[in-house]
Amino acid sequence: MAVMLFRLSIFLAAITALLEIGVAANSRRQQCTTTLSDAKLVADQLQLHYYNSSTGQYNLGELWTDANTLEDLHNLMLANDSDDYENAADTSYIAKAALDPNTDWTKFLGGSNDDAQWIILALWKIADYKSARGQDSSAYISSAAKIYDMIAREWDDTCGGGVWWSTEHTYKNAITNELFLLTSAAGYLRTKNEAYLENANKEWSWLIASGMRGPNGLFNDGLDLKTCQNNGQTTWTYNQAVVASGLAALYAATGNTSLLDQAEVSLDATIVSLTGNGILRESCDLADETCNHDQQIFKGIWTKHVQYYLDNANDISRVAKYSQFLGVQHSGILLHATNSAHDIGSVWYTADQGRSQWSPEASASGLQAFISAAKYGSC
Which InterPro entries does its entry note (predicted)? Predict the structure, then answer.
């Protein structure tokens, strides 16, 4: 651990030397309008190139990645105080389902407990936008609550606890349980429902004891059900930040600062181990790999949930610790991954050598990196 922290301090010092402009270490600072302008160009192209308003879906997209993209668009509108994509929510198939009180969510979700929770986050963000505009958000809140209750029932004692990845009960993994930590803790902040807080505390107690976080500080993909041990599968970037945003929400609910320290174990390990040239890099970004559609959105989810982490941590020193890194993601994407049409490719850390994938997931990933940098990065 000492070696990792030493490497991290050297890494952050190197980034500081590369940046010519300082950052404002204030969680309430004004949004960077230049970076938000870059984000708007990407969002405009994303909607023009990929969004099918007749189906309410993104061409080549998937349910859970569409949910993240909707969340990103509403993050952008809340950040730049615009209504540029106000129709995206109500025309999307996800929002239409939320607005219909007769939606069969069991059928809609298809048994995916992780997908379900990405939808909860999207519905909450749409509700935040609607509320900020003085519009009725109750249908989104109600639908999110229905989905949450479904997921809460997916907890059992197999491997000592945890929520199943799907209703088929074949796998317990990190992301589904990190999301349950987040939706429980953030749900408590929204509703003050004590059952949510109880679930959040129960989830974190189980998750930290599960063994899914390795000695390098990174969460592997999940558990081997035969042994209930860490399965040693890939340490994806998004796993390391979703847990952090969940812990920050739980901190906001309890005031327990040790939760923030636990969150930063995995955030710091990401910066040390899952980067190239100071920029986020998945294992599938490397020369002999190609990231699939799911994996193409992971890095942007990391930046988004670092933003959420800093929102709830509300600590100037913690903002200062990560703001430069978020700013470097923005500049790296502009340099390596953005084409003349403002599409964003999946490889950020180096110039595209034919491995970068161009998709709605990749563009949404870059979009959220820009939004996060606009709030907490350099300007």
Answer: 6-hairpin_glycosidase_sf, Glyco_hydro_76, MUG_Protein
Q: What total of structural domains would you count in the chain?
A: 2
Name residue 91's beta-bridge partners: none
Q: Is 178 in contact with 166 (CB distance < 8 Å)?
A: no
Q: What is the pLDDT of residues 51-101, one digit of tens each?
A: 999 999 999 899 999 999 999 999 999 999 999 999 998 899 999 999 999
pLDDT tens per residue across span 360-375:
999 999 999 999 999 9
- Going along 253-370, which residue ranges are E strands? 275-276, 279-280
Q: What 3-state DSSP class applies to 319?
A: helix
**Concatenated DSSP letters for 169-207?**
----BHHHHHHHHHHHHHHHHHH--HHHHHHHHHHHHHH
Q: For residue 346, is it within any domain?
A: yes
Supply φ then ψ for residue 166, to 5 degrees: -145, 170
Q: What is the pLDDT of residues 236-250, one digit of tens each?
A: 999 999 999 999 999
Number of Cβ within 10 Å of residue 153's Cβ equals 11
Q: What is the DSSP string of 227-279?
A: TTEE------HHHHHHHHHHHHHHHHHH--THHHHHHHHHHHHHHHHSEETTE
Q: Of 330, 318, 144, 154, whose CA–CA distance to 247 is shortest?
A: 318
Q: Which residues, other chains included, contact 247 with Cβ-Cβ below 8 Å and sequence gap of 6+?
A: 181, 185, 204, 259, 260, 262, 263, 309
Which domain covers residue 338, as residue numbers?
A: 11-52+277-379
Single residue among 119, 153, 187 that ends a domain in this structure: 153
Distance of CA 267 to the CA centre of its chain: 13
Rounded to an integer, what distance in angstroms lies between the CA atom of residue 51 and that of residue 65? Answer: 12
Q: Is 71 exposed, middle or buried (0-12, 13-18, 19+ CB in 10 A)?
A: buried
